[in-house]
């Protein structure tokens, strides 16, 4: 379980530029990313008053899902592309600890970046503007065509600041009580 790719954008462009590292700031998000802030920064939610808390500071998606739908890291606006973790199976409050590859699990008490999973990313209409028909590839439907799942990744808040680099190990700390992920 590790970090495959990282991306950010200072402007609200749909696709984010790949970068070698990200600096996470506790309670705010990613330094230099347009979605960083205490209150929600996503354009579709800026009209809500009072401004809700920003539960969408960091967008993570598994490389395996990107491969399945034929999209490269950063193209759909995610910040962290993971490999080897079923992010969609984690519950609300699960923590992802980012550790240097050479550091063992016993070194968890040393400072390191941590994100806290808040919920699912709801695939937005912008996905189809990027590539026609792509939004549907991130939706799971039952036999009656009702939506029963979403695969556009998860949204998280920054629980502990620090630098995240490509190739870092990710250690999952599950919440004490499982709560299924809903859209945030």
Automatic annotation (TrEMBL):
Molecular function (Gene Ontology), one example: kinase activity
Matching PROSITE patterns: MOSC (PS51340)
Keywords: Kinase, Pyruvate, Transferase
UniProt cross-references to Gene3D superfamilies, sorted A to Z: PK beta-barrel domain-like
Sequence ranges assigned to domain MOSC in this UniProt record: 17-173
Domain of life, source organism: Eukaryota
Record-linked PANTHER family: METAL-SULFUR CLUSTER BIOSYNTHESIS PROTEINS YUAD-RELATED, MOSC DOMAIN-CONTAINING PROTEIN
Name of the featured protein: Pyruvate kinase-like protein
């Amino acid at each position: 379980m590790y970090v495959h790719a990282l991306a950010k954008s200072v402007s609200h462009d749909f696709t984010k530029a790949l970068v070698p590292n990200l600096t996470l700031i506790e309670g705010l998000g990613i330094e230099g990313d347009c979605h960083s802030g205490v209150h929600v920064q996503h354009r579709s939610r800026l009209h809500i008053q009072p401004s809700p808390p920003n539960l969408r500071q960091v967008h993570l998606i598994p490389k395996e899902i990107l491969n399945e739908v034929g999209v490269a890291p950063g193209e759909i606006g995610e910040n962290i592309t993971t490999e080897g973790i079923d992010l969609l199976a984690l519950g609300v409050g699960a923590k992802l600890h980012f550790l240097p590859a050479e550091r063992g699990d016993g070194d968890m008490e040393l400072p390191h970046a941590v994100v806290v999973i808040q919920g699912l990313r709801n695939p937005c209409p912008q996905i189809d503007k990027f590539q026609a028909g792509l939004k549907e590839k991130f939706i799971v439907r039952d036999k009656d065509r009702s939506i029963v799942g979403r695969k556009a990744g998860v949204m998280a808040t920054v629980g502990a600041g620090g630098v995240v680099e490509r190739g870092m190990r990710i250690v999952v700390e599950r919440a004490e009580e499982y709560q299924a992920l809903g859209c945030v």
